[in-house]
Amino acid sequence: xxxxxxxxxxxxxxxxxxxxxxxxxxxxxxxxxxxxxxxxxxxxxxxxxxxxxxxxxxxxxxxxxxxxxxxxxxxxxxxxxxxxxxxxxxxxxxxxxxxxxxxxxxxxxxxxxxxxxxxxxxxxxxxxxxxxxxxxxxxxxxxxxxxxxxxxxxxxxxxxxxxxxxxxxxxxxxxxxxxxxxxxxxxxxxxxxxxxxxxxxxxxxxxxxxxxxxxxxxxxxxxxxxxxxxxxxxxxxxxxxxxxxxxxxxxxxxxxxxxxxxxxxxxxxxxxxxxxxxxxxxxxxxxxxxxxxxxxxxxxxxxxxxxxxxxxxxxxxxxxxxxxxxxxxxxxxxxxxxxxxxxxxxxxxxxxxxxxxxxxxxxxxxxxxx
Length: 370
Fold this sequence. Notes:
CATH 2.40.50.100; 17 strands
């Protein structure tokens, strides 16, 4: 039985009760376009995933970071920042002064040692001790005469016994002072090396402080450009505090985080292209074989990354990099040339394995069906 649609509406879709409807064709096209648009919106996630999968199979892309050779300048000792000789962006040479530090405690100790008496004042000190000894002997002699005089007056009843006892106590005090002075002189004569040893220690400490204060000033170890200054004049810093970062005048390295299954692209000399932030493509090549794997930084890892770990591949640009892109840890994207021969070989191997699997399943199901 054959069904035919021969109604008037089907034969004359642009007419309604004998009248021609001019907008009918455009109205039917609008409905058709609307349905196509709805179907496209519904299928867009699947289309995107399919395109992403096809792109990943055809193009070998990988995230990368630009790494500059940075030299960190740190304080050797604790101190205070007295003066900064450079600013961020300045070019520096080898042995050029960068920062001057000072330690107020060491400076005060150095002044204290400088004010201490030296060996040249030993003779003057001996003369003072002789004058002091003579004065004490004079006082002892006078005290003895006073005691004798008071004792005679006691017999006569002119003074009391208490005054005699006070005079004898004063005489004993003078004799004790004289004895202490003689003991100090005797010790000084018996150990003259102790004074010399003390003077030698003072001189050594002075030299040590001067050396440490001179070492507080820091000079540039290599030629480069000051990338960042992290301290200000008058600020106190401790030993090991980071003062500034200096960018070496060397070509930066490109650290690529390659998927482990693409390890064949990590050979030394492998060419690649780098997409810069402004859309420009630059050529580069691998300069170091893979010797370690690391976790891909979160900022470089895509939402559908196959693995969090990547092979760390070092590459270098073929041409000197522009100064505006010399930014440490700048995120980039690299693309390796597709090895079509290897891809066709892998596809052929996959098809052969699939055919073998189908043939094996067919031979197993044939006896069962009989």
